Amino acid sequence: MTEQAIARGGGATADVGPATGSAWQSARSGQPRPLDAGRFALVTLPTSPFWARRYTRSFLDSCRGISEDTAATAELLVSELVTNAVRFAGDTARTLRYSGRASASLVSLSLRHFREGLLIEVYDTDNNPPIRSSPDDDAENGRGLMLVDALSKEWSYFFPPGGGKVVYCFLEIT
After folding, report:
1. E strand or H helix at 123
2. What angle do CA 107, 118, 84 make, to 5 degrees?
3. Using CB atoms within 10 A of its CB, is residue 109 exposed (0-12), middle (13-18) or buried (19+)?
4. What is the DSSP secondary-structure string of 43-92?
5. Beta strand 165-172 pairing with 117-124
6. pLDDT value for 170
7. What integer is the mean pLDDT of 121-126?
8. Residue ranges of the domains in the chain?
9. 19 by DSSP, 3-state: which?
10. What are the pLDDT digits (tens) for 44-96?
11. CATH classification (class only), 3-18+36-92+103-172
């Protein structure tokens, strides 16, 4: 978890950098090392959230000390973050044809299991920060980051040097 988040009590901040223990940082002495770590690359297709959930479940099934409730919450958080990545990094204006999928953007999911929790990181090629919206009661979407905020101990984002963004959240293990 980032020290900035500890100081302010969780929630999202503007580009504070990677979380401690991030897959996007080189290992440093004194920093916690993950008990288990996994990474999964996806293409911005409508089926990507499904495959991200499947990968998450498979990964968490191989980790010790992860309860069914924690795994289910992690799957939901991954689904929301990957759905946002597909929605905003993918080109929704064009109709996908078989040959058109070759130019689809990439999304990367990183899961890092620590003693105290699970760090979920989703990279996409979009350079715009995530925006937590306040949708109307009858809106069909727009609640993803509200769920991430409510279910995780902390969430934020950062812009890696090569472009795009990484949105991450930290889920405490129960």
Report:
1. strand 117-124
2. 30
3. buried
4. ESSTTHHHHHHHHHHHHHHTSTT--HHHHHHHHHHHHHHHHHHHHHHS-T
5. antiparallel
6. 97
7. 95
8. 3-18+36-92+103-172
9. coil
10. 999 999 999 999 999 999 999 999 999 999 999 999 999 999 988 875 444 44
11. alpha beta
